[in-house]
Design a protein that fits this description.
The protein is an all-alpha fold. The chain contains 13 helices and no strands. The longest helix is centred in the first third of the chain and has 35 residues. The protein is globular and about 70 Å long.
């Protein structure tokens, strides 16, 4: 009985803390929902008090509102102030957004590629894989004070691709296709394109369609090409391009055949 009383007392003591956490989670969920519905005023009214109380997710979210001028005037410096607060608490996306601004020297921050890349690397290690993709992109393009280095670019794309980032998988496919930063290897290119395409990365789907349609480094296979084009055609942004490819194949194979898999 004594143990039960102690357990009950401990549970009761935790209730206020649990209630606060539940309220916080509910407010964040409501704010995110409002933002997705483009009700930015409601999102701001929910996020700002939490941000001022030190919640990192809310701080980063208020920063995004200032960055894009939603419910508040567009103000890059204000956005940076909020990103700094969130990044100081290890918020991965805030670290990424702050890092890119140091690389480019924008929104009142000095151009400091080393500091920016370090923040972006930290962001990726904290789970925001898109940071690794953009580090790779900076090295691929050589923009700002980041020197062009395709070997380093390939390293960062692979780092994100190995963890499932579809954009990086697709870019790694491009690198293997043309031998940029890695040895030219069509087989490896197809492996990475397929990983990206399986996640719905439409440019990778179109690329695979072309590879199999024209036999670029592999034996041509019109049925596989058709399968990938059909998948790509489901995306409104690429529908016209994909349908042109499907029409091109119409004179070569029966497009009424149901593809059972893009392999």
């Amino acid at each position: 009985m004594r143990i039960s009383i102690i357990a009950l007392a401990a549970t009761l003591a935790l209730l206020p803390f649990l209630s606060v956490e539940q309220s916080l989670a509910s407010s964040l969920e409501d704010a995110n929902s409002a933002y997705e519905k483009e009700d930015y005023e409601t999102a701001l009214n929910l996020w700002r008090p939490l941000a001022e109380q030190g919640n990192a997710e809310a701080q980063r979210s208020v920063g995004i509102l200032y960055e894009n001028g939603r419910a508040v005037p567009r103000d890059g410096r204000q956005a940076v102030d909020w990103y700094k607060k969130a990044a100081a608490q290890g918020d991965a996306q805030a670290e990424y957004r702050l890092g890119t601004r140091f690389v480019s020297g924008s929104d009142g921050l000095p151009e400091d590629a080393a500091r920016g890349l370090a923040l972006m690397e930290k962001s990726g290690e904290h789970g925001y894989l898109r940071s690794f993709f953009w580090i790779g992109t900076f090295y691929r393009t050589g923009h700002h004070a980041v020197p062009q280095d395709l070997t380093k670019a390939a390293y960062w794309f692979r780092k994100a691709a190995d963890q499932g980032d579809a954009l990086s998988q697709s870019q790694l496919g491009v690198f293997y296709t043309y031998g940029q930063g890695v040895p030219k290897d069509v087989g490896q290119a197809i492996v990475w394109y397929q990983k990206a395409a399986d996640q719905g990365e439409v440019p990778a789907q179109l690329t695979l369609g072309r590879i199999y349609e024209f036999g670029e480094g592999v034996e041509a296979n019109k049925a596989i090409a058709l399968c990938w084009y059909r998948k790509a055609a489901q995306d409104p942004s690429f529908k016209i391009e994909a349908e042109r490819a499907i029409a091109r194949l119409a004179s070569q194979i029966s497009t009424n055949v149901k593809a059972i898999g893009c392999r």
